[in-house]
Amino acid sequence: MVFDDRTDAGRRLAEALMEYRGRRDVVVLGVPRGGGVVAYEVACALGAPLDVVVSRKIPAPGNPELAIGAVAPDGSVVMDPMAERYLAVTDDYVQRAVAEEVAEIHRRMEAYRGDRPPVPLEGKTVIVVDDGIATGATVLATLRGLRAQNPKELVLAIPVGPPASIERLAPEADRVVALQTPEFFYAVGEWYRDFRQVSDEEVINLLERSRECAPAAA
User: Are residues 47 and 150 in the same domain?
Assistant: First the structure.
């Protein structure tokens, strides 16, 4: 299955989540930027409120493109032990990098939400939606951070991801819904005909539109 675009993926993913439709305890969290488009379609189909959750990779010293771990909004950290050993990363560097990335996470979440408060998650069924996963490092940090907020059920829902990454993430969620789990996986974008970059403005607009899409939930 190749998706036309993220909107198509979101609609197909929503079909696999219809058992959650109309439930007042359900919250959908999109992982910006691309996951925000998929999550919007899921939230509208389920009649659930939509919010965002942002995690960030921890860059290697001197190489911002290489990740040595990831951090969630609450500061939950997942490190790649191989990268740490190979690069001889110090604790001081990790602490500084984590502090910088957490500050950036909060800045972005405030920009996305504007004056809207975060949707409470304690006791809720929380569905985390992304446009796909590769290694799953940032999603792993996300799930651990969300678990600390005591949701009733934590669901990871994605259009596509490799089996090894899904197996790694499965213990962190109560349920994983993945439409495609190809053995031969190179990148998320190869499973989309249109995988254009999504802007912050588009995510903000979708969050606003979600109030009209599910007025009762909002």
Answer: yes
Q: Which of 77, 73, 76 is nearest to 118 (CA)?
A: 73
Number of domains within the chain: 2
Q: How far apart are CA 174 and CA 157, in angstroms?
A: 11
Ramachandran area for residue 136 (φ above 0: left; ψ -120 to 50: alpha; else beta)? left
Query: How many whole angstroms separate alpha carbon 132 and alpha carbon 212?
Result: 26
* 1 falls within a domain: no
Listed residue (178, 49, 22) closest to 116, CA to CA: 49
**CATH code at 126?**
3.40.50.2020
**Per-residue pLDDT tens over the stretch 59-108:** 888 888 788 889 998 888 888 877 666 677 888 998 999 999 999 999 99
